Amino acid sequence: MQEQILHVASSAPRRVGDWTSPFVLDEARALQGAGFPCRIICPAPAEAADLLETIEGVPIERCRYLPPGAKPRLVYAKGGAAATIGSGRGRLEALPLLLTLARATSRSCVSRPTAAIVAHWSETGAAVWPIARRRRIPWALRVHRANPRGPMERLLFRAVVRAADLVLANSEYTLKRVERLGRARRSRIVPPIVAPELVREGAGESATDVPAQLGLPRGRPIVLGLGRLIEKKGHIYLLNAASELRAPSGRPLVVIAGEGPMEQRLRKHAAVRADFARLIGGVPRSLVPGLLRAASVVVQPSVVDAEGEAETYGVSVVEGMLAERPVVVTRTGALPERACEGAQVVPARDLRAISWAVNQLLGDPERAEAIGRKSARLARRHCIRAVDDLRESMEALIDGARGGAFDG
């Protein structure tokens, strides 16, 4: 039996096309394509009927850590976790969550030869760490965000970073934050794996009339904001700029696609701007390429939120570029790193700058198309390189363990 790479995560897609932590599934798919059999272990959402299933070729084992019918607050809350490990509500769930993930990890390592374990997020690393050490299996900590809140989370984060055989940060911005919080043995930047169906040549082309399927009017230029409806995404700034947008071909329509805790607030904002803006909720993953392709401009107006958290990568920015769309981003978190791939960068929270950048693109369709094509070429190379970086990181982790480099 070929050795598996075990991915342990606090959330993963609940069904085909689900937008819950899709990068976990995409990384497993990419590694399987490179010849590494993968398996995902994650908590079961409250509505889960099947605890073992295969999604897009990857086996996913879900484990219940709460009594049936209980509503989880640490994982699968709408739009993101409703509590953190350091909060009062989070502490009640943290121990059963970590123990359940640890038991499931141990069982999987016993039943199948395991070459390496990848723990997504630091709390999951706390569950994996003792199992990996006891069974002498090398493990990597996949850091998607590095903004622990409160002393308990900071202590846990530092300990897990130091314990991991390899730390994989999703951007230079994230790695710098990791280095300020804790000293890793070995670290490397490996960007998230973007859905392979978007990366292939010509993926931006779509004959499907996705806007019509989503109830959007025909003939109006679409300015698209995509992502979870949370403060750091800055969608409210795009809505506020909607009335200032202009295009030669007609009045632009700002479309925000996503779901999350700010949904009601953003819906109220969109309602008073109904002539200029629509909030369409969550969009099935299968429709996203077509929606991106239908947009004239994609905007990611992210900000630093009240908790000090900023964008640590910007997957939707890369997806927009892969769909050959010109993209406008703010100078926040890791987003400027995407600028080298063709995104236009403006100051955060600056409505005038956002409006000006979008109007420049809407006013010159030929230039916008040229920027989109160039961005797609650059982003495609970036995404292919990310798969190579992930494969090489896993090879180094496994080979290092066999050579004794990761003992301890």
Would you kindly provide a written description of the structure presented here, covering whatever features stand out?
The protein is an alpha/beta fold and 408 residues long. It folds into two domains: 187 residues, Glycogen Phosphorylase B (Rossmann fold), CATH 3.40.50.2000; 182 residues, 3-Layer(aba) Sandwich (Rossmann fold), CATH 3.40.50.2000. Helices cover 41% and strands 16% of the residues. It contains 14 helices and 14 strands. The strands form two sheets. It has an eight-stranded mixed β-sheet, sandwiched between helices. Strand 10, helix 9 and strand 11 form a beta-alpha-beta unit. It is globular, with a radius of gyration of 21 Å. The model has no long low-confidence stretch (mean pLDDT 90).
Q: Can you lay out the helices and strands and say which pair or pack?
A:
Blueprint (H helix, E strand, L loop, with lengths): L3 E6 L12 H12 L4 E6 L8 E4 L2 E6 L24 H24 L2 E7 L1 H14 L3 E5 L6 H14 L2 E4 L2 H10 L5 E3 L6 H4 L10 H4 L8 E5 L8 H7 L11 E5 L5 H9 L5 E5 L6 H7 L2 E4 L14 H8 L4 E4 L4 H5 L4 E3 L4 H12 L2 H38 L6
Brief rundown of the structure:
This protein has helices spanning 22-33, 88-111, 122-135, 150-163, 172-181, 196-199, 210-213, 235-241, 263-271, 288-294, 315-322, 335-339, 351-362, 365-402, and strands at residues 4-9, 38-43, 52-55, 58-63, 114-120, 139-143, 166-169, 187-189, 222-226, 253-257, 277-281, 297-300, 327-330, 344-346. It has 408 residues and is an alpha/beta fold.
